[in-house]
Design brief:
The protein has 196 residues and is α/β, with parallel strands linked by helices. Helix content is 26%, strand content 19%. The protein is globular.
């Protein structure tokens, strides 16, 4: 892989390639979608999330795994409870994370679909009920700053949740995610970068 192809790999993340990706049709990156995932539901740690995103999930390991084993999904990044970051898809490529979803693009004044085409998906290891960790917020802020530096169209107004773009299907990252704290930490980091 040449240097140009590695441009969308974050140096802070451990790289684990997912086959569930393809080329972005227009090369646009202008939306950050935040998700939450735990496998099995409500349980943290283990390698089930990695296995899901790399099509290696064992359907016999847990009854829930048998229900989702057929899925071919991925995210660009996963942030574990301890702040470890795993990158499954180069940010210049299209990951398969948004599903059927719609987003109001206020900059263009249009509803947009096919969000995978132009979004980056970050999964936080968690669920609707369990507070996310300080380490996760810190890693998320760092990842967001890296993405915003790479993609000028990605602004703080272009960060949203899976729940907002697929409200009839999804709830993540859920009420346990502290948007105010995340946005405060992100604003502080961005200000520090602009001053420094």
């Amino acid at each position: 892989m040449n240097q140009e192809n590695r441009a969308g790999q974050w140096s802070r993340a451990r790289q684990v390639a997912s086959p569930n990706q393809d080329a972005r049709p227009h090369g646009e990156v202008s939306l950050l979608l935040l998700h939450a995932i735990s496998l099995p539901p409500g349980q943290f740690s283990g390698d089930a999330i990695e296995a899901l995103f790399t099509n290696r999930l064992d359907p016999n390991e847990h009854p829930f795994f048998a229900e989702i084993d057929h899925l071919r999904v991925s995210a660009h990044l996963l942030i574990r409870r301890d702040g470890e970051c795993i990158q499954f898809v180069d940010s210049d490529q299209r990951a398969w994370h948004a599903g059927r979803s719609y987003w109001w693009d206020s900059a263009l004044s249009v509803w947009r679909s096919k969000l995978n085409d132009f979004s980056v998906g970050i999964e936080l290891e968690g669920d609707d009920c369990t507070p996310f960790t300080k380490a996760q917020y810190a890693a998320l802020v760092e990842a967001t700053c890296w993405l915003m530096a790479r993609y000028p169209a990605l602004t703080t107004q272009r960060i949203t949740s899976h729940a907002k773009v697929a409200p009839l299907r999804k709830t993540d990252p859920g009420p346990a995610f502290d948007w105010a704290y995340f946005r405060q930490q992100l604003a502080r980091r961005l200000m520090d970068k602009s001053v420094g």
